[in-house]
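Hi support team,

I submitted a single chain yesterday and got back a structure, but I'm not sure I'm reading the token output correctly. Could someone confirm the output below corresponds to the sequence I sent? I've pasted both exactly as they appear in my results page.

Thanks,
R.
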Amino acid sequence: MILCPNHHSEVGAGAMPEQDQRRYKQSPHNIERGYAEGLLTLLQPYPAISTGRFTLVGQGPLIQIDDEVLVQVEVENERLVLSAELYDSQNRHLVSIRRNEWISKNELPWDLEAKNRWIIIRSQTRNISLQIDARQFPVIFRAKLWYNGALIILNEKGLQYNHRSVRAQFDNYCFVESTLKIDSDSGELTIEQRRGSVMIPEQGQHSGSSGLKKALKVYEMAQRLRAGERIPNYLNAIKKILLDENGGS
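Hi R., thanks for writing in. Yes, this is the structure output for that exact sequence:
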């Protein structure tokens, strides 16, 4: 019997009687509503997502094409709150993640696997279009982000962008308090900087890496400024963090 991601583990654990399974099959909730949905549990206190070779740290929009914000993160009650929009190359809307809740249209021809801490969406050719894994810190976020003909690829090699003769690649970097913006008409890529914005080179971005530690320290300092705290010699304090070989500890 084919099951939605939300009930697969429940049946596997013997928690749903066979008569209930058959009743749900006769009147599928997702088909009646026209979409599937679920909730991601992102248990981390920092607004950080990583491909494994490229990390974004900061609250607010992280990736945007034209007027469409494709990836945005916040922190509420010591938990990461993620929002994202996924389109295909024809600009058809596939999936929304709105404040950790994913909603997908079920008539589109791709495969979806999900549990409360990860989700994978594959296209017809079995290529991964979206992967979120919150079982480690920072959350792994890999995706093919299409919009208006422009494509940003986030994968294990970092971030790649190639549109209208404009090419860019970032790997082994942590971007702090920055938004990557694309103009699909011109192909121009800009990095919009907020207060506390830095780009930190890194050789590996696991939870214990020095670059990630520095990025989180800089983020914490920027948050203190936003809260109204006065930090003497702020720029020197940032410089000291970046030059610390132990990651700003």
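A quick pointer for reading it: Confidence is low (pLDDT under 50) at residues 27-34. Let us know if anything else looks off.

Best,
Support desk
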